[in-house]
Amino acid sequence: MSLKPSVESEIKKAMLAKDKDRLRALRAIKSLILLEETKGGSKGEITSEDEMKLLTKAAKQRKDSADIYKQQNREDLYAVEMAELEIINEFLPKQLTDDELEAALKKIISEVGADGPKDMGKVMGAATKELAGKADGKAISQKVKALLG
How far is CA 118 from CA 82, 138, 139, 148, 149, in A? Predict the structure, then answer.
């Protein structure tokens, strides 16, 4: 099942349950999907890869906003962002643990034949494709630096 029908189904459930917070987050996801579908030059359909990119971007935005609100002691806004992030994460694949990420990156490093920091670009290119949606780009970059350095 693609993302759009499952989000629409969850929206209906949230409406019936009168869950305003969940409904707000689900509508934000649906809005992102609709914007992507109607973007100039688009055929009206988006791939599952595009859906993952949208969700990953939305999750990152919520996390960054939550961090800022936390620093500014705005617990009310922080709670809203974290609640939305939790709902967005329901639609994303399970995130890799630190150990799983390291194992996956070691495998990629051996596949591309990287042998030092100069090969970081090759490793990052392969890693971001293979681990899309499963790990944050910043975490991947830090771990690759540590493994190659």
Answer: 38, 18, 19, 9, 9
Give how far the C-alpha of residue 114 lies from the chain's centroid of Cα atoms, to the nearest Å: 27
User: Please, what is the angle between helix 48-71 and helix 75-91, to 10°?
Assistant: 160
Model pTM? 0.74
Model pLDDT for residues 11-30, shown as the tens digit of each residue: 999 999 999 989 999 999 99
* pLDDT 10s digits, 66-95: 999 999 999 999 999 999 999 998 988 888
**Smallest Cα–Cα separation from 122: which of 86, 97, 148?**
148
**Full DSSP string of 60-109:** HHHHHHHHHHHHTT-HHHHHHHHHHHHHHHHHSPPPPPHHHHHHHHHHHH
Tokens standing for 79? Answer: 């709670």
Tokens of 104: 């996956």
